[in-house]
TrEMBL record:
Pathway: Cofactor biosynthesis; pyridoxal 5'-phosphate biosynthesis. It comes from the Bacteria. Keywords: Glutamine amidotransferase, Hydrolase, Lyase, Pyridoxal phosphate, Transferase. GO terms for molecular function: glutaminase activity; pyridoxal 5'-phosphate synthase (glutamine hydrolysing) activity; transferase activity. L-glutamine binds at residues 46-48, 105, 134-135. Its EC number is 4.3.3.6, 3.5.1.2. SUPFAM superfamilies: Class I glutamine amidotransferase-like (SSF52317). Pfam families: SNO (PF01174). This is Pyridoxal 5'-phosphate synthase subunit PdxT. In the presence of PdxS, forms a dodecamer of heterodimers. Only shows activity in the heterodimer. GO terms for cellular component: cytosol; glutaminase complex. The keyword Hydrolase applies.
Amino acid sequence: MKIGVLSLQGDVIEHINHITKLGHVGIEVKKLEDMEGINGIILPGGESTTIGKLLRETKMLIPLRNKILSGLPVWGTCAGMILLAKAIEGEIDGHLKVMDIKVKRNAYGSQINSFKREVIISEISGEPLPLVFIRGPVITEVTSNVKIICKVFDKIVAVKQNNMFVTAFHPELTNNLEIHKYFINMCK
C-alpha cells in the first residue's frame, strides 16, 4: 500500500519511517502529481499557516480538498488537524475546511509547555499509548457525525469522521506504531 505524506513542511520523514516499518510504502507528496495512486495521505505536524500557504502556492489545496471529499483517507497530526478543521478559533478562514470540527491552536501553551502522556485509546489499542504534545491544539467543538476517540485533561485530542482522522499529538515522534496501524487500516 502507498501512503502519502504531505511534504511541504513538518514531521515528514518520521511518518515515512513508521509507514516503512509497517511494511508499506511512504511517498513524499510535494506536488499535485505525487498524489496519484496513493491509498491515503498524512498531513503532518509543523506550522499550519505555513503549510496552508504552501498548499495554495503549489496549487494543491483544492485538488487535495476534492480528493478528501471524494473519500481519500486522511490523517492530520497537530498542524494537519488545523488544516482539516472547518473552523479555527479566532480566525476568519480555515484551510481545507473538510472536517466538522472547531480547533484552538496552542491550547496547552507554548513550546516550553510540551508534554508526554500515556493513554489507553480503546478504539486503537488496549495498551497505553505514548502521546507527545508539542504546542498542541485541541478540538473545542464537534458535530454529531464526528466520533471522539481520545480526550486528555478533558480536552478532545483525537476524532474520526468518515475517511478523516485527526490527532492533536505526534505519534511519529514515538517508537509506537499502533496509531499508524490504525490509519493504514482506514486506507484498506
